[in-house]
Design a protein that fits this description.
Helix content is 41%, strand content 6%. It is mostly helical. Strand 2 and strand 3 form a beta hairpin. About 4% of the residues have low confidence.
Length: 171
């Protein structure tokens, strides 16, 4: 991995406490472009936080720590492809002898492909995790956008949106 002399965004936040609106706008715009690049490759980063935003000597942001990345199908399948998957049309893996078997296998394949659109593991850093990550229905790349918003909040306010000095109390 290349050495980036600017350190990470968390170190910058520790040094400056909060960033100006102009600085925040610049760093979040670069973060958005980096996250969009990850999503364009059909991955969810799942651990976006200031520690994983590295700053080069030129001041530009680079995204790091892809250890929790998950490959998903972010770009939706067209209706035509979905229909072919459900019917088994033009699928050499399906046996042409048994139409019912073909449909069962095609439906299984469709369900498998549909499930690749969501992630289900509860991973990430608590201050930046989207609420849907804690649910059982699964989540998609929008969880990364929640994290980007939490990072922007921290840049401008000085702490993450749901930070508390008080220990949590359960009833």
């Amino acid at each position: 991995m290349e050495f980036l002399q600017g350190g990470d965004l968390m170190t910058l936040l520790i040094e400056k406490d909060i960033l100006s609106e102009e600085e925040s706008r610049f760093y979040i715009a670069e973060t958005i472009m980096a996250v969009k690049s990850v999503h364009d490759m059909n991955y969810i980063h799942r651990d976006l936080k200031p520690d994983n935003l590295l700053i080069g000597s030129d001041g530009h942001v680079k995204l790091s720590d892809f250890g929790l990345c998950k490959h998903v199908e972010i770009k939706p399948l067209t209706k035509e492809i979905q229909e072919k998957l459900q019917t088994g049309e033009n699928d050499p893996d399906l046996l042409p002898r048994n139409e019912n078997l073909n449909k069962v296998l095609a439906n299984k394949r469709f369900e498998y492909k549909r499930n690749r659109k969501l992630a289900y593991s509860t991973v990430g850093t608590p201050d930046y995790i989207a609420p849907e990550v804690f649910g059982r229905e699964g989540y998609n790349e929008t969880a990364d956008w929640w994290s980007v918003g939490a990072i922007l909040f921290e840049m401008m306010v000085g702490y993450p949106p749901f930070f508390s000095d008080e220990p949590s109390v359960t009833c």
